[in-house]
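User: My instructor asked us to take a sequence, write out its structure as tokens, and then describe one feature of it. I'm not sure where to start. Here is the sequence I was given:
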Amino acid sequence: MAKKGNREIIKLKSSESKQCYWTTKNKKNSTERLELKKYDKSIKRHVIFKEAK
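Assistant: Let's start with the prediction itself. The structure tokens for your sequence are:
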């Protein structure tokens, strides 16, 4: 069985288009909003993805 803990599924939205990624984050260790630089398929370049609610 999978462990139940502090990890939650979050949605990352692109800063320049409507592209989204889904990932998990440990809410206990990192309480601030997550920002990652990832590849955006719709505009074909790397942009910043920010955590959305």
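For the description part of your assignment, you could build on this observation: The chain has a mean pLDDT of 91. Try explaining in your own words what that tells you about the chain.
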